[in-house]
Amino acid sequence: MRFIKETACLLVILLVFINLVSHVGADSDGEITLKEAVDIGLQRAKEWNENAILTSVNSVDETMGGSRGETGKRFKWFLIFIVPSTDDYALIGISEKKITVFRTSKQTPDSPIPYDEIKLDSSDVLKLAKDKYGLKQGEDWATGFHFTLASINGKPIIDVVGNDRDKRFARISFNAQTGEVVSAVHKLPYGGGLIARHKGSDTVTKKGMAITGVVAGKKNLVVWGDKKPTQFSTTKQPFIEWSHNNGATWIKLQTNDYVTHAWFNKKDQLYAALEKELWSNITSKSKGTKILSLDHRIENIDYSINNHIVVLSNGQVYLTMNQGGSWEQAVVPKPFYVIQISNRGDVLGLTEEKEIFQKTNDGWQQLTMPNSDDEPYDMKVIKNNLFITTKSGVWTRNLQKENWKKIKIDESIGKLIKKGEKLFGYTDSGEAIFSIGIKDKSKSEKVFDVKDAIIFDMDLMGDTLWLATIPNYSWEEMPIPERK
Asked: How many CA atoms lie less than 13 Å away from 34 in the CB half-sphere?
């Protein structure tokens, strides 16, 4: 376990992928092994300082075709060299056998690698990892096979990174002098699923799934997410399911893609947003009616109590006041990451610079904050009232008035979740969820202690609080697979 912790920092280096050159569809002629990358980088490092010594090497993700590590070779590599007894270091980037990055600076040096003593190359350890552990190419993130080299406890260690046989993130570490397996670990999920809290007692169903959304209607409950998530993807086996009996049984609904948002209107009709489409009147027997189709991804969406809908996509907002019968379009003044709409049709956006803009007939007008030094962390609109959370607390105001009122909550709220006329707050620390009083501003109470769960969404149906959670992941020892 000590070794696992010491090598964790290497993954940070490996997985901060930087595209040095935009290049798609190249053949594999420019791919090189780890030792070939060191030979190229060492020559440049010696020109910088003849005393330069290697301290780390890692391959870099790219979309250039080739073998993607299948032969122990990659197009792109990063290397770090130091000058002993100083804090001088040089970062060297290689792409297709050519040095494309050379940057010097100062930092506390890592341990030097006894490079002359290394017997094995990336192609050698990859064969060992495949033969012994059945290592597969990585998907979603760190695509293909990746390789790192560093000095751990005075020994040169080569890591091979890919997927295990169950497509889970895996890392096999070898002594580069002897070929001995030093460590074999993979990321295993824990947690995830749908939590039902009823009278202080929790029941978990759909265990291990990534439940990314839940919504309660008058009599129906809908959840969506991924049945077989990995650490870097929740779109492997997307699903959306409907329950007519408070979660006792579920019916699979028809969709063509991964669901990002869903809600019920006042008539208990189900709406769902996919990556680029919006559908209405979804039932257990019909996938419904498509009411919007865009060329770009839906980045954010909101609906009012009377089901006005606003969609944010590619710097544009799309607005309908008649259930998708017709749409208006407007350009946003700055990049938004939250969009909201009121019962009156007022559209508001929260920018990446923490500014709130409201759409007017003449364009967009910026709203003033309750305090001059406040920045909104999040915002929601319910009926015709705006709610924001800032470092000074949670505030609300009617959109037709300028005076703000503070809502009393014992802890700092970082995220707001709106479900119809219900508002929840997720604390900055991520440790608790509060139900925030909408009508009575003094009635806000803690409804859930989060503990180890990663909560994506929630809703309240009767006296049951439903919480959508996704798995977390931890490094665990990887057994040698049994041969079939």
From this structure: 29
Residue 77 identity (one-letter amino acid): W
User: Residues near 118 by Cβ (< 8 Å), separated by ≥ 6?
Assistant: 35, 149, 156, 176, 177
d(CA 102, CA 120): 26
How does pLDDT run across 197-222, given as a tens digit for each residue?
Answer: 998 899 999 999 999 999 999 989 99
**Cβ(297)–Cβ(276) below 8 Å:** yes
Between CA 226 and CA 409, with CA 465 as vertex, the angle to 5 degrees is 115
What radius of gyration, in Å, describes the C-alpha atoms of the chain? 27
pLDDT tens profile 227-238: 988 888 888 899
Give me the phi and psi of 18, to 5 degrees please: -125, 120
The answer to whether the CB of 455 falls within 8 A of the CB of 466 is no
Could you tell me how far CA 12 lies from the centroid of its own chain? 16
| Nearest-angstrom CA–CA distance, 26 and 129 | 27
Kindly report the number of other CB atoms within 10 A of residue 470's CB atom: 23
- Spell out the residues 6+ positions from residue 9 whose beta carbon is closer than 8 angstroms to its own: none
**Strand order of the sheet with strand 261-264?**
261-264, 270-273, 277-282, 289-293
Contact in structure between 14 and 142 (CB atoms under 8 Å): yes
**3-state DSSP call for residue 385?**
strand
Q: Measuring CA to CA, which residue among 350, 325, 324 is closest to residue 336?
A: 350
3-class secondary-structure state, position 148? strand
Would you call 102 exposed, middle or buried from its count of C-beta atoms within 10 A (0-12, 13-18, 19+)? middle
Q: Which residues of 221-258 are buried (b: 16+ CB within 10 A; e: fewer)?
A: bbbbbbeebbbeebeeebbbbbbeebbeebeebebeeb
Mention every residue, 6+ apart, whose C-beta is less than 8 A from residue 82.
52, 53, 55, 88, 89, 90, 109, 110, 112
- How many other C-beta atoms can be found within 10 angstroms of the C-beta atom of residue 304? 22
**Rounded Cα–Cα distance for residues 413 and 430 (Å):** 9
**Tokens (6 digits) for 52:** 């330069």
Instruction: Please identify which residue in the block is written with the tokens 């090189």.
Output: 32
- Tell me how far apart the alpha carbons of residues 192 and 312 are, in angstroms, rounded to a whole number: 29
How far apart CA 347 and CA 248 sit, in angstroms, is 38
Q: Cβ-count burial of 364 within 10 angstroms (0-12 exposed, 13-18 middle, 19+ buried)?
A: middle
- Phi and psi angles of residue 86, each rounded to the nearest 5 degrees, phi first: -135, 175
| Torsion on CA atoms 244, 247, 252, 255, rounded to nearest 10 | 90
pLDDT digits (tens, 9 = 90+) for 376-403: 999 999 999 999 999 999 999 999 888 9
Name the residue type at position 266.
K
Alpha-carbon distance values, 394 to 160, 366, 374, 403, 407 (Å): 48, 19, 11, 14, 5
- 255 pairs with which residues across the strands? none
User: What's at 227, amino acid-wise?
Assistant: K
